[in-house]
Amino acid sequence: MKNVLYSLILISLAIVGCDESASSVSYNKQIVVTGLIEAGRSVDTVKLVYTGEVDKVYTPAAYAITNAVVRIVGTDVAYIDTLVHDPLNPGRYYSNDTTKIIQATKTYKLEIKTADGSSVSAVATVPDTFSMIYSTIVDNSTVHYNTGTPVNFFAWTPSRFHGTYLPTVWSMDSAAPRIPKSFIKDTTAFPTPEKISYRIGLPKEQTYTELPWIFLTYFGKNRFEIYAVDENYTRFLNQFAAAQGGELREIRYNVQGGLGVFGARTRAKGSITAYIIP
Amino acid sequence: MKIILTFLILTSSVLAQQKAILSGFVRDKANKESLPYASVSIKGLKIGTATNIEGYYAIPNIPEGEYDVVVTLLGYQTWSFVIDTRTNKRIVQDILLSDEALQVSEVLIEAEKDEEKRSTQTGRIVLQARDIAQLPTIGEADVFRALQMMPGVKATSEISTGLNIRGGSTDQNLILLDGTVVYNPSHLFGFFSTFNNDAIKDIDLMKGGFPAEYGGRLSSVLNVTNIDGDRVSTHGKASISLLSTRVTGEGPIGNGSWFLSGRRTYFDQLVKFAGLDTGKDAIPLYFFYDANAKLNQDIGEDDKLSFVGYFGDDDLTYAIGNNELELNMLWGNRTGAIKWTHVFSQTLFSNFTASYSTYKATIGGDFGGSGFSNTNSVQDYSLRADVDFFATNDHLVKLGVWWSQYDIQYRESFDGDPYLFHERPAQISFYGQDEWSINERWKTQFGYRVEYQDLTKHVTHGPRFNLRYNIDEYSTVKFASGVYYQFLNAVPAGSDNGFSPFDIWVPINEKMNPSRSADFVLGYDTKYFEDYKLSFETYYKFYNDVLLFKREITQTLNVDELFHVGSGRSYGFEFFAQKQAGNLTGMIGYTLAWTYRTFDALNDGKEFMPKFDRRNDLTIAANYQFNELWKISSVFTFATGQSYTPASGIYQDVSTGNTQTVIVPGSLYSKRLLPYHRWDLSIHKKITLFDLDGSWYFQVFNVYNYRNIWFKNFDYSKNPVEVTNVKLLPIIPSLGVEFKF
């Protein structure tokens, strides 16, 4: 009798155990916002697209949101700008009023209303202005590629309302050959006139950095700049970089009602251009 | 502590004068190794005790008379002797047990029954090296792989030795090697554990309700005890498998014993021999080695000194082209301890231990012309005192103190741009517990543990409670509950799949609370069916302030910014059936479990089942001894598929200046891979060659070559995104040979 009882208990438990509660997740269409406003400039781009289905070819134009009402509103500054859609670049909204300039230390709200009635919003505070104060190379100098030694040392005055600083390298010469790196298989020149690389992960308080050679991709003319970027964009970049590849991971977006990022940045006064030669 | 000791010594002397007392050590007859957990009972009086981890026992307050004393231990022949307390009130009797009775069913059953009736511990798994060696596996026997077959113990994959126990993460297990904490017990990126099975005497895993003498982790305690060494004769053993060569030696020295064991893999030597370590498609050179050593000396009748050491390293060198890309990795553990065992009186037994443990990983190289290095290390200097006071027949009191000074460093350098994390927290813990045999049927254990960490100034209080009721001669019901705290957590920087060399231990800071768990365990054990032991256990566990690494690019020095802080719960049912006698032996383990976590910043703040949640786990293991020479072993494993996060959408991000595909994850870990199943086989044969006794084995991992799924891979470079199943290991045959000398 005990044998039968034990067997029944085990069979019952096995049946209960087979009842998996995992939900079946299907395609969930969402609005994706990409917007980065910059101090001292009018709004250049707020990009709006829908997410696509994972198992189908994704072309941004096919998923572009072209008929939304997109406004940037200052929350602590008198500023309202209704962006216009760029028909040549579906999904891109920009300011056609060059007098509407984004100011450092001010907070702006992005308001979006799509044709189907969906509302999306996000808020960003623009970091304070700051300056590049020191470099081991001077503007328009020539730098010899030297494996193992950092290319440059930069310092800058501190900003405010920022999440991190982004030392950024712009490759200016599309015809220049790649800097040889064994792990990079692609040796073709870049397809666009400018290609940037930047360094993420600097502590918020750090106001200096060296740029390892890994951040320079091409010989020829390179421009070095420092951006102070807000907390939204900092968090997005840090999570975005870690989420590429491997297990799928959440990226915490600052966009209410949608995905993506609405961030702000301030470019340091001054930048340096150098010629990297083999 | 000194005052307490003085009090206990005086008390024990007074008590000892009133009635008779019997004490001593229980040892293996063949090699004089101490035998923990042996049952010593006095017939007719229904009183008794079990030997502690040093093999010591004491039974105070024995009335005047002549009695039979019976000593039993699983796998050993029962031993009995007569004492006369009318003529001798202070009897010291060391006992030697013979293991000749391994296949005698009746003796095993009696030993099992005694053991179950004495212990209040729930969720306990005790394995001996010979049990582990019988299980078919890849390459060679491994402690962690054997444990992963047990109910309540899960692994995130078959190529990981990380242990997820009753809903806990892999860093929530206190792993002790001869009493010293081991921080990263893995070789080969987590494929093997650091513990060489040839060096192990036994392992003792407590999955929950663990006593107050243990703390600092939320989920479990794993005690690995190495062999002391043969006190009678000198001998050794050499083994060769496809993975490594292992050599052990042991023997008597002075008034004690010595033991040495070492192993090394030779994959790197084979690669070099074949000339595959150079050129464009060079194969990385990799090897690991480890060594265990132990020296025991008796200093008189009441004192014993033990010196214990372990060291091991993994070494990987990887170069491509003309040294354009170089990677050098070196990681390993070192432990060392000096233990003084002192018997103050027959009723007062003590251990004083000074130990050192460190784990260090160094990764360096050159990446596209930019040099980098990364070093992380944890050092643990500990002092520990533990006292067992056999107060009366009914009460065994344990007191102890454990102080640890940690030195934790993480250094990162990329082209000379340095980053350093360095903390030196200290922690002190006190515990006390009383094991009270209320009567023949009821036994309970109360304990309390207080812990203090100087970085946070937190004082934690962890009560522990165990209760046992003997229903009848065959069956026992047990209940246990406890509160546990954890101040150190591992940042799983390298992998979600258990231990990796990149894992960094960090202490919580002043902005954080120690992680806390509380469990309730109810168990039922029975030996009602001859030759079979059945065990049922159910548990419920809460977690508070539990941490989850954020997995985002950061260089913050603030530990509180590295983790999500949340809560969790887990519950489940475990069934374990074991047959330990006869030609056919084996076990069936089944687990039905649920694990949940909640973090504000994840899954919209909603509760989710983490990756190591698995509903069903079934293991069926069987050994059949054909005759003296041949033996076959088989293990079948079935488990619910591992959970993963599905994709709910896709878009292309342009915010970074480059166009990159982004996959939007769906509900966290809401889908499961296909169920996991595998069958392994091994054949062992005893042989004699050149007058040396030995054996060879042939084993097949994944006999029917079913490629279980490891994980879903999303290829971002394809449009549409290509989703593929990355498979686990195929059929892998291996063989090995072992000789004793």
Q: Which secondary-structure class do the elements of chain B indicate? A: mainly beta
Instruction: Tell me the overall shape of chain B.
Output: globular
Major sheet of chain B: 22 strands, antiparallel, barrel
Determine the number of helices of chain B (DSSP H or I, runs of at least 4 residues).
Answer: 5
Task: Describe the SSE topology.
The complex is a heterodimer of chains A (about 280) and B (about 750).
Chain A: H1 2-17, E1 31-38, E2 46-50, E3 69-74, E4 80-82, E5 84-85, E6 92-94, E7 107-113, E8 119-125, E9 132-135, E10 141-144, E11 153-156, E12 164-171, E13 195-198, E14 208-210, E15 220-229, H2 231-243, E16 259-267, E17 272-277
Parallel strand pairs in A: 1-16, 10-17
Antiparallel strand pairs in A: 1-2, 2-6, 3-4, 3-7, 5-6, 7-8, 9-11, 11-14, 12-13, 12-15, 15-16, 15-17
Chain B: H1 2-18, E1 20-28, E2 39-42, E3 47-50, E4 56-62, E5 66-72, E6 79-84, E7 90-92, E8 95-97, H2 105-118, E9 124-128, H3 129-134, H4 143-147, E10 153-154, E11 164-165, E12 173-177, E13 180-181, E14 186-187, E15 192-193, E16 200-206, E17 220-226, E18 235-241, E19 244-253, E20 256-265, H5 267-273, E21 285-298, E22 303-320, E23 325-345, E24 348-367, E25 370-390, E26 395-414, E27 417-423, E28 426-437, E29 442-453, E30 458-470, E31 475-486, E32 488-491, E33 504-507, E34 515-526, E35 532-549, E36 563-579, E37 584-599, E38 616-625, E39 630-639, E40 643-644, E41 647-653, E42 660-665, E43 671-672, E44 676-689, E45 692-701, E46 709-715, E47 722-727, E48 732-740
Parallel strand pairs in B: 1-7, 1-8, 12-17
Antiparallel strand pairs in B: 1-4, 2-3, 2-5, 5-6, 9-16, 10-11, 12-13, 14-15, 16-17, 18-19, 18-48, 19-20, 20-21, 21-22, 22-23, 23-24, 24-25, 25-26, 26-27, 26-28, 28-29, 29-30, 30-31, 31-34, 32-33, 34-35, 35-36, 36-37, 37-38, 38-39, 39-44, 40-43, 41-42, 44-45, 45-48, 46-47
